[in-house]
Amino acid sequence: MPRLPSIAVLLGGLLLCSRLPAADIDPASYGFPLHNPFEATIATTPPELRPDLPPDSEIDQRDYSLSLHPARPFALPDSLRQVRDLRYRLARQAHAAPLIFIISGTGAHYASSHTEYLKRLFYGAGFHVVQLSSPTSYDFMAAASRTATPGLSREDADDLYRVMEAVQAQQADLPVTAYHLIGYSLGALHAAFVSQLDETRRRFAFKRVLLLNPPVNPYDSIRNLDRLVQTDVPGITGNLTFYELILGKLTRYFQQRGHIDLNEALLYDLQQSKERLTDEEMAMLIGSVFRFAAADIAYTSDLINRRGLITPPDYPVEEDTPLAPFFIRALQCNFGCYLNEQLIPQWRRRHNGGSLSQLVGQIGLQALREYLAGSRKIAAMHNADDLILGPGDLAFLRRTLGERLTLYPFGGHCGNLNYRVNSQAMLEFFRG
Amino acid sequence: MVERPWLLVAALLLGSLAQAAEPAADADGFKRPLERLQFNSGHEQHEFERASLAILDVRDPWERWNRRVYHFNYRLDEWVLLPAVRGYRAVTPGVVRSGVRNFFANLAEIPGLLNSLLQLRGRRALDTGARLLLNTTLGVAGLWDPASRMGLPRQGEDFGQTLGVYGVPAGPYLMLPVLGPSNLRDAVGQLTDFLAANRIDYLNVATASDAHPEISALKAVDKRDSIPFRYGQLNSPFEYNKIRYVYTRARQLQIEE
Which residues does UniProt assign to the signal peptide (chain A) (predicted)? Predict the structure, then answer.
């Protein structure tokens, strides 16, 4: 009977655990210097507060490609030939090690800056690292997505899972001791769905899964992102467009400094000068980046499926076809437009109708509530001032994840991923 | 234990001060960051579209040819240039590579000096002349770059810029095989700079290159190694349009500077 006390402790611990509150990081001791969520999102962490990372020369890495060529009703147009095969990047350790898959955020491909940063961080800590494009990235849509209409989390996760299986098969000689999964932004939502899929398919049996700044209800998130470009920026009239206004500020700033210095601390320094950007201007910049991503998604999905909303269905799109007319049309389409014109009609056709609220209920983290609540291998890190969240989202995460949610007081959207305190917490989670 | 209440009070004070500028958070801690923004009323909401459409406004009558060259360059890069760069990096120690980089950059100061003079930029011409002198002598034929460490950073000027300064318009956008984005004016500039450097034959490199094409090959590999851009890096079906805008706008800024 000597075991009884320890079992009692364990049981008590489990009971208590399910009621433990989220780990709220105290604003006073956190030390992240950017308290403005828009600044944090754009500039991320000042260089001196970032973790030490291995340089490229110390990373044994290569890009590989997978010829998945999913069966679709129409052949891929010539203009997308360069993304016929799906690229991914593998950084390998010289010895047996755990492998971590990184899923990139909205519209981002495998070599985008956040993904590269996470690679360095985990490679430096002794992991093999595989970097994957987001299912919303045009290369993934062309090379790996069966419907080329991203947005349905379960189907996107299914596409991702096939990609990960193909990576595993292609790297069969890699000595892997365990599999882990991490995603940021929309990639974190995908990671949660991939993890659930893996519970039945068991190809990876992920040991730990970390969600960094996930959207809780992606429908609310895209509404937030679409609104960012509608901020009121005074001084934009006639020939002076928004970009020219920002360029003008940058030019004057560089003139005052006497030289052009495009470094990582640029925005941080700019915000200390009198040419500093207002919240509305920064919001518009962030919103613009997402709108360009939305344009790419809307254009690519329409083209691959010959929907005729942007490119006429029988229009020959060759390597040398001028694309400006279609770029113009795609730029008019924000996330809401893509959802209404492409994703929802397609979903209705394939699922016999269904309301918007049904769709919304299927694609968010709420759809995984029970799975998330019961899976102790999954944790999330989020920010109290993240731009993609809506009211009640954090309450949902607190209820569902309990102490497996770490909530940072600052950082905006993913701006503190490369802050030393955060990187330390990430590494500890995967080591533990 | 006596200190505790003080710490608490201090923390509360600091906390309230720090949060003075920030909106109050929800019960679950959410700070509603979008609510601190001023939004446009209905009819003025199209600034993103307006500004972004201006990006497409680049004269490009030879677009079909340019796009074919863009795809040619894309493949050349992947199948020839980047593998060559990888091989070069694998067999050459870093110190040698930086010596090679400095050596060719030092040669490029010659057209830089000429163009600074042509633009009547005395200060810049003096700085570039001093760099050339210091790096060729102290830096042993340009293998090192002591001038930068002495506070004379490199300031490239090319003949395309010089033409731009004197009001020559950019002309149609032009994608050059191997060399990448340009326009009619800058392509003429590149050719002129190349011919001028050949004519001057500084350190006899141009003559030596005629006899030893491997010098030109090394120069090309070093050049590619020095440019961080990769085709496909913008990860967009509209990469061609985006590169075209960025190139055109960046050249405008360089000329206005």
Answer: 1-22
- What is the pLDDT, as a whole number, of residue A260? 66
Same domain, residue pair A77 and A139? yes
| Token representation of residue A312 | 């006429």
Residues of B whose CB is below 8 A from A133: 235
Name the residue in chain A with its Cα closest to that of B11. A28
Q: For residue B35, what is the DSSP state?
A: G
**Alpha-carbon distance A345 to nearest alpha carbon in chain B (angstroms):** 24
Core vs surface per residue A5-34: b (16+ CB within 10 A) or e: eeeeeeeeeeeeeeeeebeebebeebebeb
Same domain membership, residue A319 and residue A297 = yes
In Å, the largest CA–CA distance within chain B is 86
Least Cα distance to B76 among B175, B173, B227, B177 occurs for: B177
Interface probe for B, chosen from A81, A230, A250 (most Cβ of B below 10 Å), is A230
| pTM, full prediction | 0.89
Q: Which residues contact A423 (CB under 8 A, 6 or more apart)?
A: A50, A51, A121, A417
A52 shares its domain with A184: yes
Q: Give SS3 for B59.
A: coil
Contact residues, chain B, for A236 at CB < 8 Å: 47, 51
Domain that includes residue A320, residue range = 225-350
Contact residues, chain A, for B11 at CB < 8 Å: 28
Residue B61 CB contacts under 8 Å (≥ 6 apart), including other chains? B172
Residue A4: inside a domain:
no
Confidence tier at A229 by pLDDT (50, 70, 90): very high
Does any domain span residue A2? no
Residues A420 and A315 grouped into a single domain: no
Ranges in chain B, pLDDT < 50: 1-20
CA distance B207 to B198: 8
B30, A384: Cβ pair inside 8 Å? yes
Residue B171 falls in which region: left (phi positive, over 0), alpha (psi -120 to 50) or beta: left
Q: Is B16 on the interface with A (CB under 8 A)?
A: no
User: Which residue from A64, A56, A60 is spatially nearest to A171, judged by alpha carbons?
Assistant: A64
User: Is A373 inside a domain boundary?
Assistant: yes
Distance of CA A371 to the CA centre of its chain: 21
A and B: number of Cβ contacts within 8 A: 159
For residue A382, list its beta bridge partners: A407
Which of A233, A331, A393 lies nearest to residue B49, judging by beta carbons?
A331
User: In the structure encoding, which two tokens stand for residue A349, read together?
Assistant: 């056709």
Chain centre to alpha carbon of residue B104 = 17
Which residue type is seen at A281?
E
CA–CA separation, A387 vs A381, rounded Å? 14
What CATH number is given to the structural domain containing A41?
A: 3.40.50.1820
A175 vs A60, A66, A358, B252, CA distance in Å? 15, 20, 43, 52
**pLDDT above 90 (res A312):** yes
Q: Phi then psi for A128, rounded to 5 degrees? A: -70, 145
- Coil/strand/helix, residue B179: coil
pLDDT given for residue A345 in this prediction: 93
Domain ranges within chain B, ordered by starting residue = 55-256
Cβ–Cβ of A227/B34 closer than 8 Å? yes
* Min distance A261 CA to chain B CA atoms (Å): 12
Evaluate whether residue A1 is within a structural domain: no
Check: CB of residue A159 under 8 Å from CB of residue A79: no
